Fold:
Amino acid sequence: MKNIVKFLIIICLTIQPVLAAEKFKTITLDEAIKLFLQENIDLRAKKMDIDEATNNIKVANKLNNPNLNIFYNYGQAGDGNPQQIGLSEDIELFKRDARKNLARIDLKLESDSYAYLQFEKTMDLKEAYVNLVYAKSILGALKEQQKLYFDLLEITRQRDKNKLAQDVDVIQTEIALNQMITQVNSAELKVRKARYEFNKALNIDNDEIYDVKESKLPLPMDITDGSLKILYAPDLDGDVKSFESILQSALDNRYDIKIAKHRWDKARQNVIVVSRQRIPDLTVMGGYAYQPARYADSNHVLHGAYAGAGLTNIPILYFYGPEIKNAKIQVEQAELDYLSAKNKAGKNLKSAYDAFLTARTNLNVYGTKLVKNSEELIKASKESYAAGSSNLTSLIVMEQSYQTIIMGYMDALADYYNTWLDFLREVNSEVFEIEKETL
Structure:
């Protein structure tokens, strides 16, 4: 058994250098966001939609190109009739302004869609950053626990030498240590997975592998400096605003509601564009006309000009009724989507607000009571066992309970940050004052 334990310990100690051989570029959250905004592939692709929408305004304002016309009469048809060469132009009536207004609304829609994507992706990046720091926090806590078990194994072996402990105590400690070694290895894997997710959230087109600066999650009140300050998580003890005072401000700033409103406006403007297809277009023409000398009574070439006008696309055979009906249906659909977005936004915000307050309460309990009391208890239990005043089973149970509390504390801390990020998602703002103003 002792040989097996030594073998597992050697494996545990040699895993770290292998993992450390990977090269990472450590960056802060602020640096990650700047890099993301400059080089993220998704944002670069979405930005092209804005450029396209800008160009579409010019497309909507286009004029039709002219047509070149030549009329040449042969034989007797040319007797007394002039030959003509000139241009004709089809002019749209009351259509271009409607198309331009539609294109301008579409530009607003694409601009807000880009801003929404940028916001969502930025929040994804922050969440991935927090989750990677959280995974490192768990790994660090487990390593601390592993060290406690190593120390406990030494104490047990020393007591065994002094005939103060039975062989079963050594075996029991070795089993607990082996279990901890597997947990540390699993935590290492979770750190690597979280690092992959962080780099996926960055989505940068290079071969660099980025890692976060922090090795553990701090309490919100400890974020006075450093990269996580950009999270702007509120303190644990401050009074927060009521949900009603937050709701209207959030609804005014949500990108999804703005986008739904733009789509509604676009649908209404599209009714105007489609309806104006009923208006006939004007065709004007003009050019140079002449009569050859052989056809002229004066035996000289006769020079002149011609001009004409006409109406095209007169809505007699087809009145565009189905297109107009469809456009009006789209208006009703867009209005319902807008109302749905507002309705869902309020409920999602309430859910995120309640989840954040619950996470805040849980973290306060861990920070003020559970962790502190557990640290004192495990310290006293360890000293009691070393002095021979308690048995090993009680100490291992205490160790495991302490580990559970520490893991719960890390979970509560990560949950606090993630629920705060979820709340910011629902108010569609990276910075939001949730605390009440103090006089």
The chain has nine helices and six strands. The first strand starts at residue 25 and ends at 27. Residues 236 and 360 are 6 Å apart (CA to CA).
